[in-house]
Amino acid sequence: MKFTALFVFIYSLVLSTKSQQRDNECLPGEKHKEVPTPEDSLYACHAYKEHLCCTSDFTKQLANRPIRKIGNFSWTPCNKTLSPKCEDFLIGVECFYRCSHNAFFWENPDYPSAILKAPVCARFCDDWFDACKEDLTCAKNWLTGFNITADGVNTCKQPCRNFSDYYSDGKDLCENMWGSSFMYKETDCLQLNFTGPNPNNELVKKLFGENEDKPKSAVSSRTASLLVFFPALFSGLIR
């Protein structure tokens, strides 16, 4: 019984430590910092300033409006700037992906620098569609629907049409514009246009805290090794 109690204690400690580690990680890759840090001199994405996975320099691109491109990737391949209200929503999405440490919890196991099925609040998606429906684009999926050069410059391969011609509603927009990065959720969902304290921290605690329903990617190979090692160790001690 003593060995069982000790194993349960160590098992809980390992999972708790891993959860805390994940709260201090960013998505891998050159688009993100290695770990989130506070930043005071931001040009945009101020809501994430206390625990930031992007650099202050990156946010300059989101403050120079109207925005035509981020890096070499154009938001305006139809040679027409987006309306300010539409642009606001794209900035909100970009700030979450590039700057929020919460994005790490939806890391795509096949493309670790990307996210997979992060649950965005339905209200945000619906408002996003309403804001952009009369703006122009030439791709439904902005990850795969353009001609893209090796340098990341994107150009149209489909005709320029209103967003409302490419997307039927907010759900269609949220679940297709950035591939499978997001999903449309009514409850237990990410807020991408908040001010004040980050409400998504509480959502992460609710969904990933001490639950056993964590995605497979949530437990590192090191943690998995420990969880295999301890039962074997105690089994040997008991014998």
Descriptive notes:
With 239 residues, the chain is mainly α. The chain has one domain (2-238). 38% of the residues lie in helices and 8% in strands. The protein contains eight helices and eight strands. It has helices at residues 2-22, 56-63, 84-99, 122-132, 163-166, 170-174, 200-208, 221-238, and strands spanning 69-70, 73-74, 118-121, 136-137, 147-148, 154-155, 161-162, 182-185. The strands form four sheets. A two-stranded antiparallel ribbon has the order 1-2. It has a two-stranded parallel sheet with strand order 3-8. A two-stranded antiparallel ribbon has the order 4-7. A hairpin with a 2-residue loop joins strand 1 and strand 2 (73-74). The longest helix has 21 residues, at 2-22. The radius of gyration is 21 Å and the shape is globular. The two termini are 14 Å apart. Residues 3-20 and 211-239 have low confidence and may be disordered.
Topology:
Elements: H1 2-22, H2 56-63, E1 69-70, E2 73-74, H3 84-99, E3 118-121, H4 122-132, E4 136-137, E5 147-148, E6 154-155, E7 161-162, H5 163-166, H6 170-174, E8 182-185, H7 200-208, H8 221-238
Parallel strand pairs: 3-8
Antiparallel strand pairs: 1-2, 4-7, 5-6
